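User: For documentation purposes, I need each entry recorded in a consistent format: the amino acid sequence on its own, followed directly by the corresponding structure tokens. There are two entries in this batch. Please keep commentary to a minimum and don't merge the entries.

Assistant: Recorded as requested. Entry 1:
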Amino acid sequence: MVKRGNAPVPNAHFHKHWHPSASQKGRVRVYFDTAPQKRIRRLRRMKRAKQIFPRPIRGPLRPIVHCPTQRYNMKTRRGKGFTIMELKNAGIKDPKFARTIGIAVDKRRRNHSEESLALNTERLKEYMGKMVLFPLKPKKVKKGKVRGVVSECDAAKMKELSNRGVYLDKRGRAYMPKPKQVGKDLLKAEEPRKLTDVEKKRAVVNFLRKVTRDKKSIGKRLKRQAKKEAKANKEAMKK
């Protein structure tokens, strides 16, 4: 298009081929599947969490490091992996073994300060203290390898782990528990019937809003009720 007279310079963008007879039809990109894709990603995360249970879904443990350059070195972030010195101070001698128990290792990184060395060593010790390592073969357990190794899956240990949300099978392997079959009768479809007078007069939109609001705030209400009961019992004990 050529400018003619005292008119503005044409700046129209006709690069999208909407017409079906265009030479490059089908090149217009739209994002109508944003909401379904969000749900699909969430279901994939849940599926992966079940597959790798009880390992964390966010990957291995990583150190806390300072950002490079003078402008950002006051900020901290997660690094690539722990150094060999940090592993040794935490009691882990073999870096290859560390990778098998969910600890990231970076052989190229060096410790330039005692503060970062102490911080990441403490981070490793805390992780090792909380970790429970399930052996591949319960009968052949290497003792003294790491704290928290389950050597015998006796009844007491099974009960303790189940209270923490970890379940073991007969071979001592962890698995994701199946959801309890509770409330299945409540989900059955109701048989057809006539509406009552109360249901006819009810404002459906307001009723559904109230149900949604009650569903969201049920936890807060139960907590508030428990506090009131605890307070009443305390006052009764004083009397």
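Entry 2:
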Amino acid sequence: YGLLVGELQRRLECATKPERRVVLLGPPGCGKGTQSPALKRDFCLCHLATGDMLRAAVGAGTPNGLRAKAAMESGALVTDDIVIGIIEEATKKPECRNGFILDGFPRNVTQAQALDQMLASKGVAIDKVLNFEVPDSLLVERVTGRLVHPASGRSYHEKFAPPKVSMTDDVTGEPLIRRKDDNADTLKARLSTFHSQTAPVIDYYKKQGALVNIKADNPFDKVKTAIFGALNK
């Protein structure tokens, strides 16, 4: 009963919150995943991580999911229009009625333009783009210590945000894992690709006046305060 009252209270609070559509940009290990739950909760937004959405759409067998599955099975890349379709499907869910946090997309200017077109067709637009800035050397240290709870997506860090019990999720008590690609060599290659691809996207949103740079190598609470300040403007 208490849970139900809590949920009703949250819905009432959410009904008074303004709509926001937010894009998170930042290299692997920049802290987007750690900040997202608080953003999602406090601003009543849904969190759309493109990798998770693709897997969910494939699993659910939606029309776009089937197209994505066919592309993956033939070894082709999942095309932008499929990903945009999956994002569009996801934004229709009730938990997205106040808006969304989009994480992992767009990765290039063509995708950013396609996303803008899809949103414009619904009479809305991206409100803020938060660009998480962290020096590469710190990212290597962050990523090699990262631990993930696969079912919920909760992330921890051995040094910076350890679980209460080693290698165990705080909420469920289930084991945490390390992702295979969370190692220094893989990361350095990913960072170089990320910087070359994302610089034009940062520029694109800067010209629109939507970009806010977040100094993400600060402590968690300081980063959170900067994010909340940016979104409350």
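Summary note for entry 2:
The chain is about 50% helix and 15% strand.
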